[in-house]
Amino acid sequence: CIVVIYSMTTMSCSMFGELMREVPGNDHFRGRAEYTTIVKHFLGRRWYLASLIGLNCALQSLNIASIIQSAQVTDTAIAAIFGKTCSLNLTPFKNFWTDDNGQEHYVNHSDDFFSCFDVNHSQGNAWGCHVVISIGYVLVLLMAVPCSMWNLDDNVAIQVVCLILGVLFMTAWAIISMVSYSSMEHDGLSSLKAINSSPALGSQAGVLGSILFNWNVLTTVPSWINEKKPNISVNKTLWCCTTFCMTMYLFISLAGATAFADVLQGPVTGTCARQLRDPAFNCPNDLMQVMTRGHLVEAAWRQGVVMNVLIQFSVYMFPIVAEVSGIVVFSIIIKYNLVENGFSKTFSNVFGIALPWMVSLPVLYMPNIVAQFINFTSLIFLTFANFVVPLAMYAILQGREMREGPPQDEGVASKADEGAIAPSAEDEGVPAKVDEGAIAPSAEDHGEASKADEGAIASSAEDEGDDWKVEDSIATSGNEKNQDYGEAPKVGEEQAGTSCEEKHKDEGEALKADEGTLANSGEETNQDDVSPLGVHQHHAFPLSWGISPMTKAVLAVSMSVLLTLGSLVAIVFSVQEGKYTINRQVCALVGS
To answer: Pick from 304, 309, 307, 287: which is nearest to 296 by CA?
Structure first.
């Protein structure tokens, strides 16, 4: 399942990149186009509104789940270091847990307005089913919110450091899991099965939602493409990154699931094999909780002081390097989309940054909230935003190519444009990618319908209606694009007027220059790769493969239908097999 999702995700992201360059004014990604702007161009206003809701729900659900998990693990880290962690309990009432003999026990501090206790070694959780403001929640908020106010490229250094640390931590956990497996006693219930058919433990219905949650890539791709350098290959970057993630996922998941199959909590049922034998056993929610419980890990690892400290450090730092950094990225992308669609910066900051923190606070220590929240929101919103809408647009694009032929940048018009750009860059010393003035005259001289030809765009806008108004937002935001262009947009505008005047004065010389450059371009340039200016030309499938638009459209529709049906089936099974009971015992055992 994870391999299929990996392949579909990467192809969908690449297809979406091709959609971006087909938006007027954004050929070769020289403007700026966010997710919802692209949907508005291809599908119209109704789908634009639906995608705006779907995108924000998808990203907000990721943020809320990350906030809850990060805050809980941070509380655990504080308790491990200082012996206890504290919180303000806004709904104080008594919690009770029941032992094997049926006797109830009061959970200390559960009815205190302000309480401090050790969440790692207490009998029951005093905050289970309560609304609390914990120290862990506050610390995560203080780390994430300031960074969320920055732009995406301002966080690059932080993201790189977090990536390196995350890989090191996951590698260490995989090694520990494999060593621990060799020393464990295993029985029928704890063995790893490809398909879980046990009526007591439920099916694998919740797995699809969890996988989709971890492969939420496409909604971030437009913002990355807007920030990337012109010579960076979209396909190479996407496939290298997703393949690396895929390798790490398999490495850590297979090792952990095999070693701790009998104790890890099921994503749908909220139980585990050992809890069926011992009702008092509290199943760990994830591998991080397994690592913090010394009795579940091989003795050789927990007895050494240095190794034990390193294990604890990796577990408590992982939410910061993985979850908190993700909160920042998703908040920024929500802001980008709202601002580009006309919302004020104040509203965008409140909705993109403050809202997920307000929603996550009341459910911070609710039973099994993270697993169920991830499962259902992923199946509904992530499938819609990451696959259904993008793949539908790609099929529409291929249908257009079947009717009208391939885009002009794949033929002579592209070479003509490149020929016009090159001399301008040499003569004026201005970055050619944003030299709109040089592109437009070239289209006029040769009679080609260049994508940069403002007259063609305006004419198309009259035919298509409001949907083509997205060009205005792209052109405006393109001037603010934070890449290696420096002040190029402003200079390009000045050159546009000068270049036009010179062209009209001596069209004959311009044509000769274009023809000479065109010949050189045809000899030296591979259209599938990089233009003479080093601007990478993106296609989801290289033109050299010779794949027809019909084949591409069928592939996109097939992936969309497959994932939609799979999500619907997973939702049905999750509802049927999930456990949603809330009682004293469930509340007392939340998260601890």
So the answer is: 287
Summary count for the chain: helices (H), strands (E): 26, 5
Q: To which residue do tokens 């090191």 refer?
A: 168
The total of other beta-carbon atoms located within 10 Å of residue 510's CB is 20
Under-50 pLDDT residues of the chain = 186-189, 191-195, 201, 409-530, 532
| Strands 132-134 vs 85-89: parallel, antiparallel or unpaired | antiparallel
Of 31, 584, 68, residue with least CA distance to 323: 68
Give the whole-angstrom CA distance, residue 319 versus residue 73. Answer: 7
pTM (global) more than 0.85: no
Q: Which tokens hold the place of 569?
A: 């089936």
**What single DSSP character describes residue 133?**
E
Can you give the length of the chain in residues?
592
Listed in sequence order, the residues at least 6 apart from 281 whose beta carbon sits closer than 8 Å to its beta carbon are 263, 272, 274, 275
Q: What is the pLDDT of residue 431?
A: 38
CB 365 within 8 A of CB 130: yes
Q: What is the residue type of 177?
A: S
Residue 497 tokens, joined: 């007027």
Give burial (CB, 10 Å; 0-12/13-18/19+) of 445. middle
DSSP 410-471: GSHHHHHHHHHHHHHHHHH---GGG-HHHHHHHHHHHT---TT-HHHHHHHHHHHGGGGGHH
**C-alpha dist (Å) from residue 375 to 71, 204, 283, 544:** 19, 12, 18, 40
- Single-letter amino acid code for the residue at 289: Q
Amino acid identity of residue 170, one-letter, is M
Residue range 491-507, pLDDT digits in tens: 333 333 444 444 334 44
Nearby residues of 189 by Cβ (< 8 Å), 6 or more positions away: 198, 262, 273, 274, 276, 277
The per-residue pLDDT for 392 is 92
